[in-house]
Design brief:
CATH architecture: 2-Layer Sandwich
CATH class: Alpha Beta
Number of domains: 1
Strand content: 25-35%
Largest sheet: 4 strands, antiparallel
Shape: globular
Length: about 110
C-alpha cells in the first residue's frame, strides 16, 4: 500500500524556492529518487503562494519511508531547512484502493 506525503515548505524572500533548487542542484533529490521504494519526489510552487514550495514524496510503503528517514540524507535536508529558515506543514495519504465511483470523473 503506497504512502504519499505532501510537505509544504514556507519561508520568506524566496527561501523555500532556493531550498528546493539547492536540493536539486546538489543531487540530493536524485539520490532520494534512487532509494529503494521511492515512487516520486518532486517539488512544485503553488500558484497562489510564491513563498511556499510543495514536495510530493511517495513511497511503496511505510517501511520504505522509515528506511529513508534513517539515511544520512535526512541530516542534509534538516541542515538545509535550517539554512533557509523554513517552516513545514505535512499531509500524509495512504492508498486505499481504487474507488469505481470516481471513474466517471476521471478523464484518462
Amino acid at each position: 500500500m503506497s504512502v504519499t506525503v505532501n510537505i509544504y515548505y514556507t519561508g520568506k524572500n524566496g527561501s523555500a524556492r532556493a531550498f528546493a533548487q539547492e536540493m536539486e542542484q546538489s543531487g540530493t533529490t536524485q539520490k532520494i529518487r534512487e532509494e529503494q521504494g521511492n515512487l516520486r519526489y518532486e517539488y512544485f510552487v503553488p500558484m497562489n503562494d510564491s513563498e511556499t514550495v510543495l514536495l510530493i514524496d511517495s513511497w511503496e510503503d511505510q517501511e520504505a519511508i522509515d528506511r529513508h528517514h534513517r539515511t544520512p540524507m535526512m541530516n542534509t535536508i534538516a541542515q538545509l531547512r535550517e539554512k533557509y529558515d523554513l517552516h513545514m506543514r505535512v499531509e500524509k495519504f495512504v492508498q486505499a484502493g481504487e474507488d469505481p465511483d470516481d471513474k466517471e470523473f476521471i478523464r484518462e
